[in-house]
Specification:
By secondary structure, this protein is mainly α. It has 2 domains: 1-99, Methyltransferase, Methionine Synthase (B12-binding Domains), Chain A, domain 1 (Orthogonal Bundle); 128-204, ARM repeat domains (Serine Threonine Protein Phosphatase 5, Tetratricopeptide repeat). It has 11 helices and no strands. Helix 4 packs antiparallel against helix 5 (66-74) and helix 10 (156-181) packs across helix 11. The chain is elongated. The chain starts with a helix and ends in a 6-residue tail after the last helix.
């Protein structure tokens, strides 16, 4: 039914809007259950663009279908394509948006403590800019606290994401970020890396 659309997607080299549009089209024409079955089938594709489509679909239905959220966490997070990992982050943000960011706090914490760095990073990147999101817009300190809790993450890839997310927040909430950074033990190199990134706008 969607053969032409799928073929068109495989030729996209930059951007994701068309893939997201395709996901929304599928979702608007099928039940949640059928969408999940289609997503799992699409995820078997050799083309990262089609696997990205699967991730978008799962993100859009995950607030109403727990299995889709689990699939993102346990299957999509293992994908070797960086493009798919970017869509995983967007899919997680879609879940939080649809569920409500405050209601999603326990899931954020669960993912931030997951053994796979791609899962942890999906939270951090997906919600950037954190204080532009509902709940965190009114509670910037909560966003800072969640991010600060993973400042010593074993993955440099994740720590870089944490530092950049705090740097984003510091543009509007510099005093809050500065106050948090002043409490850090910088004897560990991991925290030093995040600290340096987070302070970039504070030093100007």
């Amino acid at each position: 039914m969607y053969e032409d659309m799928i073929e068109k997607i495989t030729k996209i080299e930059n951007g994701f809007k068309e893939t997201e549009h395709a996901a929304n089209l599928i979702i608007s024409n099928h039940s949640v259950h059928d969408c999940f079955l289609m997503a799992k089938e699409y995820y078997q594709s050799e083309h990262y663009q089609v696997r990205s489509l699967a991730a978008f679909i799962c993100g859009a239905i995950s607030s109403g279908l727990h299995e889709a959220l689990v699939f993102l966490k346990e299957a999509v997070s293992l994908d070797t394509s960086w493009q798919v990992q970017e869509i995983l982050a967007k899919a997680f943000d879609r879940f939080c948006h649809d569920r409500g960011y405050e209601n999603s706090l326990p899931v954020m914490e669960e993912w931030l403590n997951h053994s796979n760095p791609n899962v942890r990073r999906a939270v951090i990147e997906g919600l950037r800019i954190w204080t532009g999101r509902d709940y965190f817009k009114q509670n910037p300190g909560e966003a800072i606290k969640l991010l600060a809790n993973v400042r010593n993450d074993p993955s440099e890839y994740v720590r870089k994401s944490v530092g950049n997310a705090l740097k984003d927040i510091s543009k509007k909430h510099g005093e809050l970020v500065e106050a948090e950074l002043q409490t850090w033990d910088l004897s560990q190199k991991s925290a030093q890396q995040v600290y340096k990134l987070a302070r970039k706008h504070l030093e100007k």
